[in-house]
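Before anything else, study the sequence and fold tokens given here and see whether the fold suits the sequence. Record follows:
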Amino acid sequence: MSIRPRAHKKRQMTQRAASAAVGLPLLMLAIWAGPPWFSLLAAAVAGVGALELCHLARRRGRRPAVLVAVVWAVGLVAVGHFVSAGLSASDEHKAVLGVAGVGALALAVALLWDLRAAPRLGDWGATAGAAVLTGGLLAYGPLLRGLDQGQQWLFLVVFVTFMADTTAFLVGRAIGRRPLAPQISPGKTWEGAVGGLLGAVGATVVLTQVLVLDTTMAAVLALGALMGVIGQLGDLAESWFKRAAGTKDSGWILPGHGGVLDRLDSIVFNLALVYYFVEWSTQ
């Protein structure tokens, strides 16, 4: 390796450490503070994430309605916030249908506005997908925060996902030999995936005890394994989006990391998983 690549890699690692030193405490503070601050942070991240997905779609020749996708994603997180605040079942359904209906109408108007170029099916899908994959998944953040012990469960999601990513990277770098998905992410290996799975299980066992979460050991082991698998699948999905768009990073907003999707690709899927796990286990 030449001196220049080494210097670039060192600078990138320094930038990542600096971003984590700012971003992680901000996230922890927002989770601790709860609504509306956590919901506002989730909505902001959803908006930026939708913008990044639209950017990737444009690189593939699509013409998503960017503003509609961003507002739609933020609106979905807002629904999660108000549902967690205690809307009745009928109001909850009206809120979901309202956001879905207004978003679809705005999408139709935006894509049909330019009469010189008829919108393709891919343009509709790119816009709706950008909104749902960011706002739809991040809406589970406020929903989870609103449950009993929601603060603790959110802490668990963040730290277990972080531990799974870290152990997958370290194990893969140390003993990784067999490629996991070479056409999507050449650096990932089966050994690293197993390391990430074990890291997720171990972290879940420890954190459920530290955070005094009300669940059984069998459920904890199952949840840890599922988080390890789902988180890595989310990571691979985001890597596939970037490879299809021919780019290394989803965005530029986080120095050393790229975009918000590069950091949240594992967490957002685990938010939905843990939310439904808590709902199921408390019935």
